[in-house]
Structures are given as C-alpha cells and as structure tokens.
Amino acid sequence: MASSSSRSLFALTLLISFLTCTVTAQLSPSFYSYTCPNLQRIVRKSMIQALGKEERLGASILRLFFHDCFVQGCDASVLLDDTSTFTGEKTAFPNRNSIRGFEVIDAIKSDVEAACKATVSCADILSLAARDGVFLLGGPTWDVPLGRRDSTTASLSLANSNLPAPSSDLSTLISKFANQGLNAQDMTALSGAHTIGQARCTTFRPHIYNDTDIDPRFASLRQQTCPLTGGDDHLAPIDVQSSTRFGNDYYQNLLAKRGLFHSDQELFNGGSQDSLVRRYAFNGRLFASDFVTAMVKMGNISPLTGTNGQIRLNCRNVN
Question: Which of 122, 109, 123, 127 is nearest to 61 (CA)?
Fold first, then answer.
C-alpha cells in the first residue's frame, strides 16, 4: 500500500514538474536565433544611444517593464496608446505623468522591423531593453527568455490595483508581489531597481514630512527641493548616492534610514526583510544574483505565446 502510494505521489510530482517546464520552455533565450539573429545587437546599440543622451532612461525602461509585467503579464500592454475606442494603461494613477521611455521602445522597434519584419514582439523588445539598461548602468546582465507575444488588450483597472504605491506598507508589498507569483525575497531584490532613477516630489512628500522612520538630515535635504505644497514635479534621485549607477547603495541607504519612499524604508523597519536588506547592503554580488533571478521570474509572468496575442507592427497600437 505504501509503495503504491509513493509511486502515485512520484508520478504526480513528475506531471506537475513537466507541466511547469512546458510553460517555461515556451520562452527561450534562443527563440529568435534563426528568425532575427541580430536582434540583441540591435537592441543593445539603441540602448547605448538612448543612455548616451540621457542616462535616466535606463531606469525608465526598467520601470516600464515592471509596470507591464504586473498588469495581465509581460505582454507590452503598457505601451498601448488610448484611442477613441480603446483605453490603455498610461493614464492609470501609478502611470500618469510618471512612466516614460516610450520613444526609446519605438526607435528600437523601428530598427528591429527594418531587420526582421513582423517577427519580434514589443514585449520581448521591452524585456531586452530593460536588461540592457541595467547592464549599461553598471549592473548585471543575464540571458533573457524570449518568445512573448503582444496583447491586443490593456487594463486600466488592473494597473490601478496591481501596482504597489510608494505609500505601501510591508504587508501590502509582499501581498502584491505574491499575487504575481513573486515571493518576499523577489520583492526585496526587485526593489533594488530603485538604486537608479529619479522620482517626483509628489510620490515621496508624505515620507519626508510625516514619517519618523527617516534620517532627519536626509528629510531636510529632500525638503529643500520638495516643498510641503507645490513643486509636485520636482525630481530627486531615488538613491541618494547615485541615480545612474546600478549597485547595492540602495540597501545601504535603507540601513541609514535614507529610503526615499515610505515603501522603500518599509523593507528595513523592524520587519521580516531586515536581515535580507542587511545582507544585500554588505554583499553586492548576492544582491546582483538575486536581482537577476527575480527579473527572469518576473519576466515569466503570464506571457502570451504560440498563437495567442500578436506581433504588433507598432508598439503603441494593436494591428
């Protein structure tokens, strides 16, 4: 009886493992090896040109990828423009006057289309551009699983509900990432993306004026360019040490209570992620490794593959 039960359990485990691998195997770093062999060189060249003009775009493209994957999967829905008959995600509260870099993806798509007509999805271009932005700013690189297709739909409501706000507490952050199949370690590692980029005053004003878990000198510094009223669009680096160099400075800032957002400092505020934040602060290689793992995992959120979706000819519009 025990032997029969063990065999049944083993068979079930194999089946689950096979099904999981089948889903994952639909994406592969070599997906375009024959149909668009120069794809990665085209994307890298375009990203070098873009960051040569404005280094901040590396962070902007990374954020676009995150905001895409958290809303109905990594399907380039975030890139779709509103039309008279279609409402996209760009005007959702977390995205409005915030997400940027669309023109970079447009330029890459144009170059890719010239080389490989109607072959490479906007979703895959965005995933490669996000990776290259990190690398070009001094971060790690990795093999990006490819083979995603583009959505024909978008969801304003999901963009409003799925994306964590800068005012989120730790339990909310863990929950919102868990809803996407990402665990607390993934969440803490992916938050390290805040080592690059800038933020608008309106997103961090409550933290620098109202919270107590913040270095008073740091709060005073940020208040100089982010007044209590007005100046909503004034920018500040998310990482006070460097906004254009990818590294583990972000976690060192958290140890010193210099997180820019309330949600940042929640990672190191007497909660479950304190020990991991400490490890990342003192071990940049560990952070980089975990960040790569989490990025690949996030990139596997509900991709459209096979005959699902389409290959958009223009990333802003459905064919």
Answer: 127
Task: Give burial (CB, 10 Å; 0-12/13-18/19+) of 32.
Answer: buried
Q: Which residue has the tokens 């809303």?
A: 71
How far is residue 305's CA from residue 315's CA, in Å, rounded to a whole number?
A: 17
* Residue among 209, 294, 193, 318 at smallest CA distance from 251: 193
Catalytic residue among 67, 194, 207, 262: 67
* CA distances in angstroms from 254 to 34, 115, 208, 244, 291, listed in the order given: 45, 45, 14, 18, 17
Q: How does residue 17 score in pLDDT terms, banded at 50, 70 and 90? A: very low
Answer yes or no: is pLDDT of 94 > 60: yes
Tens-place pLDDT, residues 249-301: 999 999 999 999 999 999 999 999 999 999 999 999 999 999 999 999 999 99
Q: Is 45 helix (H, G, I), strand (E, B) or coil?
A: helix
Pairing mode, strands 198-200 and 235-237: antiparallel
Catalytic annotation on 67?
yes
DSSP labels for 257-286?
A: T--SSHHHHGGGSSSTTHHHHHHHHH-HHH
Q: Is 236:226 a contact under the CB 8 Å cutoff?
A: yes
* Residues 115-152 pLDDT 10s: 999 999 999 999 999 999 999 999 999 999 999 999 99
